[in-house]
User: Fold this.
Amino acid sequence: MAIDENKSTLEVTPRNEEKIKKIWKTAGILLILTSIEFVFAFTLPRGLLLYAIFIGLTIWKAKYIMMEFMHLGDEAKPLFYSIIVPLIFLVWLVIALMREGSDIFMIRW
Amino acid sequence: MSTTATAVGVSSKRGTWGGGNEPLKASYGKLMMWFFLLSDIFTFAAFLTAYAAIRVSYPTYAGPDDVFVGSNEYWPVPEMVFDALPFLHGVHVPLAFVGLMTFILIMSSVTMVLAVEAGHRNDKNDVVKWMLWTLLGGITFLSCQAWEWSHFIHGTDGGSMITYVNNLGRVVSETVYGANLAVNEYGPAAFAQLFFFITGFHGFHVTIGVFLLFLAFYQAAVGVYERRGHYEMIEKIGLYWHFVDLVWVFVFTFFYLI
Assistant:
């Protein structure tokens, strides 16, 4: 009986090398983007330009993780949009709180 | 693309409005994981936006980086705060350790997606193998974070001269070593508070993730998913694990780079 239980009941599909290659390619892209951030952190002067590059690269990485690793792109369109569209509210949150923070700066210093 | 044994599509018996349909073409468990992750995105976004708001409310350190001195008068330069490595006491290696942590977490995300891919093929051996690698990555990351916290709390050899209001309500000027929620040697009190809450909340997610990974690894190894007929649990836990990686990408940028 124990032997029966250990027997595979599901049919194993052979490895899809193309898919696996794509996963490693995505991994390479993520690591390269992180290295670029790393290099820029020490070579470019601190300022708006550097911060913009950092945020751009971060969002680019986030896109790869969500689309390639979490397969959000393969989900049904309504599901895709119900995850992505609510994130628009964050734009407001960031603008409102940054304004607030700089106003506190003006009062305090 | 899903090869799971769950029902998908419109019921021929009940039609479009009769119930029992899956318009989003995803199983209940996966949908709920996605919506949980959406709510978690907002929680982390609130943390990071609060960081940004508090940071712009303080002056930034203006002098040259290499002579940085911690003070609660201005926000510190992250690469001068996070510059330590285990076993290399007193050596200034900016951001190397956190870079290593990022690498570990990204790699564990890669092995996780390989486990999900193996799950689609019902390949038990590959699932178990990649889940074990992912589990190891998660545990390594947590260990690194434990070291990072310990170093942050205990501080540097020199400490910094900080003037602050102590817990008896008196203004004191003294050399402060390390960090706690009230005062720290690196910058304003809010700097350490945000460090503890943001990386701590993320670490809490990683801890839960490690438990889930172990559960999935164990159940895959003893054949629970094989008997169930599908490896959807690997996919759901995979979504959670990728999310933990996703959050770290943002924490890395906003806390350690900017």
Summary: The longest helix of chain B spans residues 189-221. Confidence is low (pLDDT under 50) at residues 1-7 of chain B. Helices of chain B lie at 28-56, 78-81, 96-120, 124-154, 189-221, 224-228, 232-257.
